[in-house]
Amino acid sequence: MGTVWMCYDPHIMEKPFFLWGLRMVESDINEFPIGNAFIKFSKSIEDRCEVETESRIWDLGSKAPDCYEGVGTVLSYLDRMGSCHWGCNGNDHSIQYLCGAVSSNGRAALRLIQMGFYDESLLIVRHIGEVANLLALFRMDGSNFEEWNLFQNRFTPAEVRARLKSLTNLEPPINSERYSALSHRFVHPNAELRPQLFNLVGVPTTGGKLQEAGLLVTLNELALPLAYACIAGALILNISDDLTRDIEAAAEHLLEQVGEVGLAGYEKILGATQTDDQTRDTLRQRGRDLVEFQKSLQDFWHTRTTPKLPLGRWLVENMPRGTNLEPPPRDDFGRPNPFLDETFQ
Ligand SMILES: [Zn+2]
């Protein structure tokens, strides 16, 4: 226990929160919607989160706004690289398709970030990281591309990383630590899963709620593989010297804007924050307030729904009275004694 990625920090929270759902984001709701009404309701909350995010991003330090802009520029280049914007070389387009897919993946990941779906965005980020490593491998050694393309060999992500490392003796763009962190926390279901947990008081949420830490972490994690995929793709396609230089410069600039608040840095920053006594007191109080608020919502909910009886009470009220069972008579000597052969010491 003790890391924010688990349920809660026992130094701050007295008990774990239950999940912060859409009802708690939208306090004005009277009847909880179902069907198409729920779809529209959740969309309205996601739309609101998107507007808040697009406004808030410009105030989040010096790097985040530049990183946001840089992601847009790199996505623009990847889109054009994927669609032969500067002319078609007539080849089989495998690299163009990979670049186009990364652009689509990146746009989808960005939309999810804007709508407060940080975990879901990181699922896509892991996939972009796989493509970034693959493109880097193809650029380093074209024989790998032939093997992959002509012979339809599928390389596992670990195999791609190992091949890259054997070629360069450097860590691949998306190394095994980053890949396994993404896999463990956001791809494979596990008992430590706490959805959208990007806040100091340890409240898991569903999507649609702006969390600044979630915004920074996912934006930085997205920027990294996008920039690497863009550089490797541009070098392989080699559209023209001038264009390749522009694309490289844009991707390198994006890499410089990637802040330290990534999957690993986030935990360190939270750990440092919690060593400050005053901050810890404030967080503890905020935690208590949230527990009270959630409890009041829960009570409110129960007043509007039929309470479920505890099992013990249900049994007392519903078990048949009396009994129809016929116990055997005491003089039933016809039955063999199963313990006759037993000796007791
Ligand atoms: Zn083409």
What does this structure look like?
By secondary structure, the chain is mainly alpha-helical. The chain has a domain at 48-197 and 207-261. Helix content is 61%, strand content 0%. The protein has helices at residues 22-25, 35-56, 63-82, 94-114, 118-140, 142-149, 157-168, 176-187, 212-237, 241-257, 263-273, 277-304, 311-318. α4 (94-114) packs antiparallel against α9. The longest helix has 28 residues, at 277-304. Residues 84, 88, 93 line the site of zinc ion.
Query: Given the helix and strand composition, which structural class is it?
Result: mainly alpha
N-C termini distance: 50 Å
How would you spell out the order of helices and strands?
A: HHHHHHHHHHHHH
- Overall average pLDDT: 82
Q: Detail the poorly predicted runs.
A: 1-12
Q: Quaternary state, please?
A: single chain
Tell me how many strands there are.
Answer: 0
Shape: extended
Indicate the radius of gyration in whole angstroms.
29 Å
Ions and ligands: zinc ion
Major β-sheet profile: none
Can you count the helices?
13
What is the percentage of strand-forming residues?
Answer: under 5%
